[in-house]
Design brief:
2 domains, two-stranded antiparallel ribbon, 410 residues, mainly alpha, Growth Hormone, Chain: A, globular
């Protein structure tokens, strides 16, 4: 394989801060729409249950459909990004979100919601390979830690915006108007990205006719790729537990109100965003002092696991548990930018899209599998065990991170 350089890609040395900031901002904006799409349906589940006579199992299946399609599509999208470039794939993804919002506004029953889940899952699939291909190619090396930090923060902001946006407009008008507004939001984002499209152009990988058969799949034989996949799967299993069940656990174990429990989850996400911001400086600091990224990730995830285990015991009472659970988000967030640096260091040259697509499909797999397993524990009233096992799974992700470091040639 050889890499063909597109003439439109100037590479000044050093790269001006303004240029890096524009690229980081545009990719961050796109990433926020991806996380917004994760919650395109979930905040209005109670409305769908009421209006369409659905069960919790029915609406839960919609999320499984979303993440299964996103996970499989993400692994495949990496190949497309490497061959076509990230920009057209990114535009197609946001177009899928636009169509999903329109489909939601027209839904008259469960089949319509399934179509929304399918379209949103297809749209979500290419984001990580596309985003990280752009960042790795267009942002200067010394600012990559900060770029990955902003990327993570905008994702968390997308999660935070979706419920307020959809539920708020539903309260003011109705849920169909909310999805019309979401379609307008996606159209605006797509318009901004198209307007500034020159900043999103990337090099593409060309395959020569004499390339050996299966060359595009050679990266799958690298053990480090599967250690990266394992890390994402394990760490996401824990995140899914917190997102799905933390409010219910707080209410059942400590008797806190629904409002307070939900506020705790919001605090967790905000602390994760703050930790991710801090993690960008930690990643840059580690680069200057030759600290390996996997070491930073391992320390951050270990801290998060210990705090989560403390929450599982219930020893701290309601207020203490809510506070410590929020701080857990900060600890995990600190490791976010170094996590992305860790994947970059493990990626062979010319295979960015394919590797990130495969590795990040572990995230979707974790989101799809975790609620099924831990939901069984919740149904049996094993609330402390749910948090405790989630913490142990996070510790297993530390082992996976160390495995990545040992195999990435650092």
């Amino acid at each position: 394989m050889s890499t063909a350089t597109i003439d439109a890609l100037p590479q000044p040395d050093p790269v001006p801060l303004k240029d890096d900031a524009v690229v980081i901002g545009l990719v961050g904006l796109a990433h926020g729409t991806s996380h917004f799409s994760h919650l395109l349906l979930a905040p209005l589940f109670p409305v769908f249950i009421r209006d369409f006579g659905l069960s919790y199992a029915d609406v839960g299946l919609l999320m499984s459909i979303f993440f299964v399609i996103s996970g499989v599509g993400q692994a495949l999208a990496g190949f497309v990004v490497d061959r076509m470039g990230a920009r057209p794939v990114l535009f197609a993804a946001i177009t899928c979100f636009f169509l999903a919002s329109l489909a939601a506004s027209l839904a008259t029953g469960y089949s319509g919601l399934v179509l929304v889940a399918v379209l949103a899952g297809l749209g979500n699939a290419p984001f990580h390979p596309a985003d990280f291909t752009i960042l790795n190619q267009r942002v200067s090396a010394q600012r990559l830690g900060h770029a990955f930090s902003v990327h993570g923060i905008t994702g968390n902001l997308g999660w935070a915006l979706a419920p307020a946006f959809l539920v708020g407009i539903t309260a003011l008008a109705d849920w169909r108007a909310a999805y019309h507004a979401a379609a307008v939001l996606y159209a605006i984002v797509l318009g901004i990205l198209f307007w500034q499209r020159d900043w999103l152009q990337t090099r593409v990988v060309e395959r020569h006719e004499d390339a050996p058969a299966g060359a595009d799949l050679a990266f799958l034989r690298l053990p480090v790729v599967w250690w990266c996949f394992a890390f994402f799967f394990l760490s996401t299993v824990t995140l899914a537990v917190v997102q799905s069940f933390a409010p219910s656990i707080l209410k059942a174990v400590h008797g806190v109100s629904v409002e307070a429990a939900t506020l705790t989850l919001s605090a967790y996400m905000l602390c994760t965003a703050a930790g991710t911001l801090t993690g960008g400086f930690v990643a840059a600091w580690g680069q200057h002092r030759r600290w390996s990224s996997d070491r930073v990730v391992a320390l951050a995830m270990t801290g998060g696991a210990v705090l989560l285990l403390v929450c599982a015991t219930g020893w701290l009472g309601a207020s203490g548990t809510m506070a410590v659970l929020s701080i857990t988000g900060f600890a995990i967030g600190v490791g976010g930018p170094s996590r992305d640096m860790m994947i970059k260091q493990a990626t062979p040259k010319g295979a960015t899209g394919r590797v990130y697509g495969t590795v990040y499909s572990g995230l979707d797999t974790g989101f799809a599998v975790s609620p099924l397993f831990f939901g069984l524990l919740m149904d049996r009233g094993w609330y402390g065990a749910t948090l405790g096992i989630a913490a142990l799974v996070l510790l297993l992700s530390v082992y996976a991170a160390i495995g990545v470091g040992r195999r990435s040639g650092r």
